[in-house]
Amino acid sequence: MLENILHMLNQFFINTGFYLADYRQIIMIFAGCTFIYLGIAKGYEPLLLIPIGFGILVGNIPFFKGFGLGLYEKGSVLNYLYFGVTTGIYPSLVFLGLGAMTDFSSLLARPNLMLLGAAAQMGVFFTLLGALALGFLPKEAASIAIIGGADGPTSIFLTAKLAPHLIGPIAIAAYSYMALIPVIQPPIMRLLTTKKERLIRMSTPRDVSKRERIIFPIVGLLLCCFVAPTALPLLGMLFLGNLLKECGETDRLAETARNAIIDTATIILGLTVGASTQGDVFLTPKSVGIFLLGACAFSIATASGVIFAKIMNLFLKEKINPLLGAAGVSAVPGSAREVHLMGREADPSNFLLMHAMACNSSGVIGSAIAAGILWSFMT
Amino acid sequence: MYGFQAISANNGWSMAIAGASIDFLCLIFLSVVISQLHKLLAFWDSRKKSPEQANADEASVKANVVRKIPTPARFPEDIEEAAQLYEPLLELLDHPFQLVDLYKVARENDYPHPHLTISSFRQAGILSAVEEGLFSWNH
Amino acid sequence: MLREIEILKSMALFSTLDPDELEKIAGLLHPLKINKGQVLTEEGDVARDFFIILSGKYKISSKTGHEIILRHTGDFIGWATIIAGPKYLGTGVALAQGEVLKLSGQDFMRLLQSDADLGNKIMKKGSDLASSGKPFVNESA
User: Fold this and answer.
1) How, if at all, do strands B134-137 and B127-131 pair?
2) What are the CA-CA distances from residue A155 to residues A85, A152, A161, B25, B80 (Å)?
3) ipTM above 0.90, yes or no
4) Is B76 found in the same domain as B126?
5) Average pLDDT over residues C8-23
């Protein structure tokens, strides 16, 4: 009897996490806790870091494979939830919500700011070269390069299509760097601009009519997707969300898109992406390379935007504050806020926030187009 | 394979140059189109109107201005008084009507806090739903 | 909500907004009861929320030794959230029991993202107030 009890206890114990844990899972659990700490205590992008951090904890709880528990085990709950990541459903839903919450008026009033969003995408293509040079396969290199677009859903979408085995490290890198924008961008902006340039004031934008705001998503969809049809899942949803918002006849749908839908997609996306970063996949030299390239991607994107703004000023009568170039990365509204703060550092009465948001919006469109272009090159 | 050799072997240079150019050109094209959009819309509006039509529109605008319901000087807190002030707006609407139309005419006539007031009318039973999306006035 | 709209209308920063726009901001405000000694903002912490005073007495102090007392309805704490910077510029403590209206910085940024007209008006007013030397940024947290 005692032997039976001991045998059962032993059987139970060898199926517990304590017995099955290896050091990589422990490291990842610490990483997950760090993400949660940064999100709650420090306030760094809590809407992203908390679900991702918790997902890391969930994904690194050791268990006996074959019980149908893990993310990669067919038929498990997490596996079903992860389906939305691998098929690109969640990123598309996030873009729907993003379109429904964005007012493109500032961009429509000053369309030349769109070029700053385009310039910031140079970070993507420079990083593509860097990743190839480091020995990554072309599809892997394209997935890593899109981190330079500074857009989490876009990074996940493209990686799911081209290099699904890298979703974990690429998503973590993309979201980590988005949270670290206050650390990455200011030194680059300071280095590349003079005090005089940072003092440039932007004029008040013209009024944009409701008709323009309604026509823009339709024109934007047709133009961008005729050029890059592979951007359709992202841009199609972005522009649909925007049309729902602007037309005035579907306020209920727009409200749902920018609240319930985007929040639901964000929670499940964060949780499952975090859970996909399992220690044996994540703690590899490749991941280190991805993180290094991600930092380069962000930095080059910021620098490209700022430098392009300075080049534009050589030809423009009404100068643009070159800080706005840094907002061409599509990390909304984090990078817009950093640009605004740097502008106020130079001149406390210079409020660049809304102009920076216009550049941010064009960055979202630019990064989705870049993803579509890379996808079509690779297939 | 690493370095420049790897880039060349995988057509990296072509992809980077072509990709960056396509992205740039697409956004340049979009920005050019939207920069002309408001001018195109203004041209379309002016083209649609003949001189007689333009005069008729002006007269209609003037008539509308004369017919505009005066904004109440003080908006009452009492729901019954507020309902009485809304009576003139209802004459501009079909019956039953959509809430969005009532909201629109209240805004056009500078009535303060239309969302809040209409919501109060619903709670007080002054506005009630008759069928899907349509409401009637019970005052 | 009427009370919140009236208070917002009385604040210089929101004085150029039309009733609809004030309603949108008022919809984001949450009333909060504050106890004596409660800390609303900590200097150097990430600025997340903005507080409009309804009642009570509050002290804002900074490490530079600068101090102000706020006690009037419509005074605000945590302006850094909205405009000035990522961190609170001072520590705000309640000197007596009171009530405030809390506005989340994240909700406010989302609102600006969805309504460029509103954002432009607030930014323009903010810029005018800052250049006219009004102390709303420098002296409150």
Assistant:
1) antiparallel
2) 11, 5, 10, 22, 56
3) no
4) yes
5) 87
- The pLDDT tens digits for C71-99 are 888 888 887 666 656 778 888 999 999 99
CATH of domain C2-131: 2.60.120.10
> How many separate domains does chain B show?
2
H-assigned helices in A75-208: 77-86, 89-101, 105-109, 114-120, 122-133, 138-145, 152-162, 167-179, 181-192, 195-198
Instruction: Name the CA dihedral angle for A56, A59, A60, A65, rounded to a multiple of 10 degrees.
Output: -170
Q: How many CB pairs under 8 A join A and B?
A: 117
What are the structural domain ranges in chain C? 2-131
Report phi then psi at A209, rounded to 5: -75, 160
CA distance C97 to chain A (A): 26
Interface of B with C in 64-93 (CB under 8 A): 77
Q: At what angle do helices A152-162 and A138-145 cross, to 10 degrees?
A: 170
Residue C105: closest CA among C44, C31, C29: C29
Contact C114 A258 (CB under 8 A): yes
Under DSSP, is residue B111 helix (H, G, I), strand (E, B) or coil?
coil
Burial environment of residue A77 by CB neighbours within 10 A (0 to 12, 13 to 18, 19 or more): exposed
Torsion sign, CA atoms A97, A100, A101, A103: positive
Q: What is the DSSP letter of C59?
A: E
Instruction: Please give the Cα distance from A199 to A345 (Å, whole number).
Output: 9
Contacts for A150 with CB less than 8 Å, ≥ 6 apart: A120, A123, A174, A177, A178, A181, A298, A301, A329, A330, A331, A335, A363, A367
Nearest residue of A to residue C45, measured between CA atoms: A42
One DSSP character per residue, A349-366 reads T---HHHHHHHHHHHHHH
Chain position carrying tokens 């037309």: A247
Amino acid at C126: G
Check if the beta carbon of residue A140 is closer than 8 Å to that of residue A375.
Answer: no
- The dihedrals phi and psi of C103, each to the nearest 5 degrees, come to -125, 120
Give the tens place of pLDDT for each residue, A300-351: 999 999 999 999 999 998 899 999 999 999 888 889 988 998 998 888 888 8
- Residue B93: predicted pLDDT: 81
**How many residue pairs bridge chain A and chain C with CB atoms within 8 Å of each other?**
72
Which pTM value belongs to this model? 0.80
Residues B18 and B77 in one domain: no
